[in-house]
Design brief:
Radius of gyration: 19 Å
Low-confidence stretches: none
CATH class of one domain: Mainly Alpha
CATH topology of one domain: Trp Operon Repressor, Chain A
Mean pLDDT: 92
CATH architecture of one domain: Orthogonal Bundle
Number of helices: 6
Distance between the termini: 58 Å
Strand content: under 5%
Length: 121
């Protein structure tokens, strides 16, 4: 489990290191870079928790049943309910919109590819 020191750091310094973190995340250019960053900076457990939270939010957005989410992601109903309460927050909405956009782009790229193949025949 993650342990956080009870000692507080200077607020200005805290703001600076958070700004650095946000900038590094914003500058990640592709999924491979994101994977390398996350695997190096987060423990396996922290990464799994983050992935499961995103997965649960995605399934909730797809109107999947709690029991299916609980079974597939091996998380509790309490965790699912917590995520459901947080899903309207900007960060969750941003992530879900990015997933939706990627799915749309992939779907249309496949359709266009099929049309192009058909026209080449």
């Amino acid at each position: 489990m993650v342990q956080l020191s009870k000692k507080k750091i200077n607020k200005n310094l805290e703001g600076q290191i958070y700004k650095l973190l946000y900038q590094v995340i914003a500058d990640i250019n592709n999924p491979k870079e994101a994977e390398e960053f996350l695997k190096d900076f987060l423990s396996k457990t922290e990464l799994e928790v983050l992935a499961k939270r995103l997965g649960a939010a995605y399934y909730l957005k797809q109107n999947q049943d709690y029991s299916l989410i609980r079974k597939n992601l091996a998380i509790s109903s309490t965790t699912i309910a917590t995520i459901k309460n947080q899903i309207k927050k900007k960060g969750f909405q941003l992530a879900l919109k990015k997933i939706e956009t990627e799915e749309w782009a992939t779907k249309w790229a496949q359709k266009i590819g099929k049309i192009m193949k058909f026209r080449q025949k």
